[in-house]
Amino acid sequence: MKTLSIDVRRAEPQDARAISEAHRLAWQHTYAGIIPHRALTQMIERRGEGWWRKATRGPATLLVLDVAGTVAGYATLGLNRARALPQEGEIYELYLRPEYQGIGLGRMLFGEARRLLKSLGCNGLVVWCLEDNDNASRFYRGHGGVDFCEGMENFDHKQLKKIGFIWN
After folding, report:
1. Cα gap 77→85, rounded to integer Å
2. pTM surpassing 0.85?
3. CB atoms closer than 10 angstroms to residue 112
4. Alpha-carbon span 73 to 96, nearest angstrom
């Protein structure tokens, strides 16, 4: 019998290519038909391997979900950027490659990101997602998030509403 290893760990520079690929696949799958094509393509192209290599050494913490040596997803997290909110931590991004979605791995990555923020002394957490991203909204509500605030994002002259989910 073979054992499948699943681990959430801090990203390392050598993970950059795999994170870039996970990012591209997840964003194409998630945002096609929501974010205008040109804007989405530009956003994905800006985050190539070099960008992710720098991100592994940046101020935000970058976690990867490693499934048997494959980077199946990633999360970035750090201090809350919305100063008007009292929550101290924020998960900036949490994405899985499409073939790894819907089987509980997102829950695992989200849980580890929350535990890490708490261990760093952050009280409360905020996560933003586009209102039209039904899967993310359902995921965060299903994990106890309260849709507390909203804002707008501009993508190639298209305004899209985003929702801020909080956990205290």
Report:
1. 16
2. yes
3. 17
4. 4
Does the structural domain 6-167 have CATH classification 3.40.630.30?
yes
Q: Which residue type is seen at 151?
A: G
Cα–Cα distance for residue pair 88/79, rounded to 1 Å: 6
Taking all residues of the chain, what is their mean pLDDT, rounded to a whole number?
Answer: 96
State which residues of the chain have pLDDT below 70: none
By residue count, the chain amounts to 168
Dihedral sign from CA coordinates of 17, 46, 81, 132: negative
Residue 87 is given by DSSP the state: -
Going from N- to C-terminal start, the domains of the chain cover 6-167
What is the crossing angle of helices 37-46 and 16-31, to 10°? 170
